[in-house]
Every structure is written in structure tokens, then in C-alpha cells.
Design goal:
Order of helices and strands: HHHHHH
Structural class: mainly alpha
Radius of gyration: 28 Å
Number of helices: 6
Shape: elongated
Oligomer: single chain
Strand content: under 5%
Length: 197
């Protein structure tokens, strides 16, 4: 009477489990990487919306003396860069390049944060000196000691190390852009470092 060799079918589940363990749970790892990369892309898109909001605030809040176009263009350009980075990261979400792209996006976000920090720090002192300089300007203007022209006004405020118009709107805008891009940049770097190589 013929006997059936059941060794192959008996060992099949064990072999499959061993192979899955030896691969380190590759499918699960890949899924986590995909989710993290997609989350990073979504965060970049969200940052772009925040930057556009900053640009709108700056444009609407800027006084007549300010350059409203510049106040809106810089946030808009920054938002465009973040959108492009988000698309770039999203396209590689399922590939081995996802980790590198997330880290790169984080580094670029921190560079933008640094670029926002420089003018922010430079304008804080001038903004604080503005109220006193503005009061003095108004008094001298009322007394007829100065001419009411932009050239004279700029020189007057420059001597007092003050902005020649209220720049608090600009400092608030740059400060928010600095905080948002800096926080996202750090989060992207930490998230990228935690992704499998």
C-alpha cells in the first residue's frame, strides 16, 4: 500500500514564517515608510497654505508706505517651493528614495526658516524704536521744523535707528513664517531619521 509523504505540506507554513522573519517584515516596513512619506508631503502642503495666509495678511495689513507686492510675493514664492517639495516627496513615497527626500525637504525648510530669521531679527529693533521716533516726528512736523516728504522722513527715522513706517505687520508675518517652517523642518528631519534606510 502506497504511503503519502506529507513533509512538504507540513513544513510549508513554518517555511513561510521563517522567510518572513528573515526578511525583517519588509512589507510592514514598506507600508510604514509609505505612510510617513505621505504624511510629510501633506505637512508640506499644509505649510504652503499657511505661508499663503501669511502673504495675504501682510498684503492686507501693510501701510501705504510699505511695498505690498514684496510683502505678498515672498510668502507666495515660499509656498510654491513647499508645494513642489511636497509633490517630490509624495512621488517617492513607495520607493527607497522616500527617506532621503523627506530629510532633504526638512533641510530645505530649515534653510527657509533661517532666511526668514535674518530679516525678522533685523527689524525688531527698528520696530521698537518706531513709536518714539514717530511721536518726535509728529511734534517737529507740527512745529514746522521738518518737511513732510518721504526723503526727509526716511533720513529722520534712520538717524533714530527706527523704521520710517510701522513694520509690526511685517515682523509678525516673518515671525509666523519662521516658526512654521522651522517647526516643520525639525519634524521632517526627525521623521526622516526614524524611517528605515
Amino acid at each position: 500500500m502506497a504511503t503519502t509523504d506529507r513533509s512538504d505540506t507540513t513544513n510549508a507554513p513554518t517555511s513561510t514564517a521563517v522567510n518572513a522573519a528573515s526578511n525583517g517584515g519588509a512589507p510592514a516596513t514598506g507600508a510604514k515608510q509609505h505612510v510617513k512619506a505621505k504624511a510629510a508631503a501633506l505637512a508640506l502642503f499644509t505649510l504652503a497654505i499657511v505661508l499663503l495666509g501669511c502673504g495675504a495678511f501682510a498684503f492686507l495689513s501693510a501701510p501705504a508706505e510699505a511695498n505690498k507686492t514684496t510683502a505678498a510675493v515672498i510668502p507666495a514664492f515660499s509656498a510654491l517651493v513647499m508645494v513642489l517639495l511636497g509633490v517630490w516627496v509624495s512621488k517617492a513615497a513607495a520607493s527607497d528614495a522616500a527617506r532621503t527626500r523627506v530629510l532633504t525637504a526638512g533641510g530645505i525648510a530649515l534653510v527657509f526658516a533661517l532666511l526668514f530669521a535674518v530679516p525678522t531679527m533685523g527689524r525688531i529693533g527698528a520696530m521698537r524704536n518706531y513709536p518714539a521716533a514717530q511721536q518726535e516726528w509728529s511734534e517737529q512736523l507740527a512745529a514746522g521744523k521738518v518737511q513732510d516728504t518721504n526723503e526727509v522722513k526716511r533720513a529722520f527715522f534712520r538717524e533714530r535707528k527706527a523704521a520710517w513706517y510701522d513694520q509690526s505687520f511685517l515682523v509678525r508675518t516673518l515671525g509666523l513664517m519662521l516658526g512654521a517652517t522651522g517647526a516643520l523642518g525639525i519634524w521632517l528631519l526627525v521623521s526622516g531619521l526614524r524611517m528605515p534606510k
